Amino acid sequence: MGNFYESMLNSGMGRKVLSTVGLPTPIELNRYSASQATFLEGNVLVGTSKNGELISDIVRNLGDSDANIFFPSAAITANEIVKAGADHSVKVTQVECAKGMAEKFNVVIFDASGIEDGEGLTQLYTFFNPIMRSLTSNARVIVLGRPHMKAKNGEKAAAMRALEGFTRSVSKEIGKKSSTSQVAYIEEGAEKQMDSTIRFLASAKSAYVAGQVVHVRKSNAVQYPNWHKPLAGKVALVTGASRGIGESIARTLSRDGAIVLGLDIPPAEADLNKVMNEIGGESLLADISSKEAPAKIAAKLKEMGGADIVVHNAGITRDKTLANMPQHWWDMTIAINLSAEEHINNELLATQTMNAGGSIICVSSMNGIAGQMGQTNYAASKAGVIGYVQYMADELAEKQITINAVAPGFIETAMTDAIPFMTREVGRRLNSLSQGGKPVDVAETIAFFANPASNGVTGNVVRVCGQSLVGA
């Protein structure tokens, strides 16, 4: 949140003025804190559709948290939830769910995998209708289903795809309380790979991720690592690491235990060295679009034991309308934002510098999804990143490597601070959470993709945008 708006929110008179002119007064987002022992505290309400297939693994996950687990006493599926708790030695408590109930919930998780057709979607209404006013601020709503394109028939496919429209709409209803709603599609046989997704979406690490879809595929089962140091011992390359979002990515991966190789161009050497010195990382200077860069990067990573995590963050903008854009601006933007990532990945794979079980994460943009006036080059490059990620997911899965992308929306950086005041203030509000995100929000999502337990999460594009109204 910008300094001016923040100062207004922090005074009674300021809030009154903002209310008078119709501007939102958003609730501050809760973000990760090392003081929280586990991924989740507070009250969690769990429910399942008839014949839900994921409830046992939901309860198993929650058993590793400090949460109080409740389920609706009137649910026809109550016995299934009680059995799941007994199977995993997890205490679950019945609660009478009704409008005006005393209990408040920090997280609500519903297993919708058993819904078979349109009529079965009534179970969403029956479960959620009484408890929507019982969500706390900064609450999380998570709905789990099966991939609709792998459904046994059209009716099942329709029911599963409906979950996306449902959760996006819920997210817009509860966004004013800085609460979010997501759907995760769990491939059959990937139940043990969904742990990292549930824990990320239920935690404060997903503060600015709203109205999103995560797909989880079958992969080798990996025990969830330490919540605070999930990347311990991993080697991570972060391009464009000297400042802004790249700096936050480097600091967050280091916080989570990774050894970071930060890369940037020679003019950024002083800033890059400062960041790397503070986090105990190493610096590498290179123009990623040069012919020499891929081999130089691979050689350095080889010295460090190979790469476990590669984050393609470096990028540029060269904005002009297409009619006025010089060709070298077009060529430069595509070369740095898209082609360089492809060339570096090809080199790391060809030289076996990427370790098995590794993760590649690309930074796309909301403008790559929605387009933007005067950014045909930038939007094309960032849309190309999405296509690359989605195509490469199957190919890299054979090498036990995941690849995903984040698409940031309005993130508070020095670049956005330079935007004219009114344009900046409007941009901050055009999302369900009515506020801009922070670089750490992008970094947390990247850390989720990099988590070894996320080895079933690949080919995803997650928007870190507070559910932007543009491109949604």
Automatic annotation (TrEMBL):
One of its GO terms (molecular function) is 3-oxoacyl-[acyl-carrier-protein] reductase (NADPH) activity. The keyword Nucleotide-binding does not apply. Its EC number is 1.1.1.100. SMART domains: PKS_KR. Keywords: Oxidoreductase. Residues 234-409 form the Ketoreductase domain. It is an enzyme of class 1 (oxidoreductase). It comes from the Bacteria. Belongs to the short-chain dehydrogenases/reductases (SDR) family. This is Probable 3-ketoacyl-(Acyl-carrier-protein) reductase. The lineage of its organism: Bacteria, Pseudomonadati, Pseudomonadota, Gammaproteobacteria, Oceanospirillales.
